């Protein structure tokens, strides 16, 4: 069968129109009803967190967000993951002992709390000078639960060393911690020393620490340890001695008023990181998580007061602010990586709010198809005769 001129032109035009649609309207094929756009697609507010500065989206009557001295901070709803406000959320800073939240998330599931272990002196080698210690002794037998009390309450780097030895060793634990961070969608965290001790290249962010704190609260065992104010720790020569949680928002020590409804999570300090804190509180059926990194105030307890201000603001602002992002981190990274701009995100999609191709996409496809037909005719049949 011979295909006539008109048929050949129509077929060619259809092929080129289809090519035009594929070239100009990829969003129509990937964001239609019932199609999951995948973790790299986001609305503009999500990428606000990758921009420097303070971000909040108040509605009418919303309280003013506090003016804090911290280099980075964030407050979010721990139940929904909605970030209510943040300042330099993805700024990479040394985390100090708040990194122990990630350590616990990584190691705790593999070590039943009732296991008893006799400490080998080699397991305590490498504890950094000036480290916070709970008093783990060589050749003494401890339950794993004792060691976790030492980690959460006394921030004991000696207890971290022993737990890491039980979990495959220091370097292996650091690698597993990074894998866990990536699995949670926390991309800012790089682990060199699992106890949070200052080390070159070791960083996290207010965003990542909030992700770790939120994930920890979902584990009943983690949540129990981080909310514990006091415990007994086995002494070197038998017996035991009391240890008290160094999170002053929990205990009210050193003149810091305890925060009503606080449920943990972890504080930290090193000379390089300054003071850091992940704090979570529950009131009236809502749970908030706040992170504060390196307040520049001269007050040594400013980290607690600034966390208090964030939590107060977050509870007061409930229902009166729109989220600026989400702790569901796998779905909040802008296409092209953290550096991508929110404008680029919305401009790269070629579709309207419900995922349909916008009018200029269709028009462009039609023009491209028509131009293709004209090119085909000229090449195949030569110039068209004119009257």
TrEMBL record:
It comes from the Bacteria. Keywords: Carboxypeptidase, Cell shape, Cell wall biogenesis/degradation, Hydrolase, Membrane, Peptidoglycan synthesis, Protease, Signal, Transmembrane, Transmembrane helix. Residues 63-295 form the Peptidase S11 D-alanyl-D-alanine carboxypeptidase A N-terminal domain. The chain crosses the membrane at residues 358-377. One of its GO terms (molecular function) is carboxypeptidase activity. Its EC number is 3.4.-.-. Residues 1-29 form the signal peptide. Belongs to the peptidase S11 family. This is D-alanyl-D-alanine carboxypeptidase family protein. It comes from Streptomyces cellulosae.
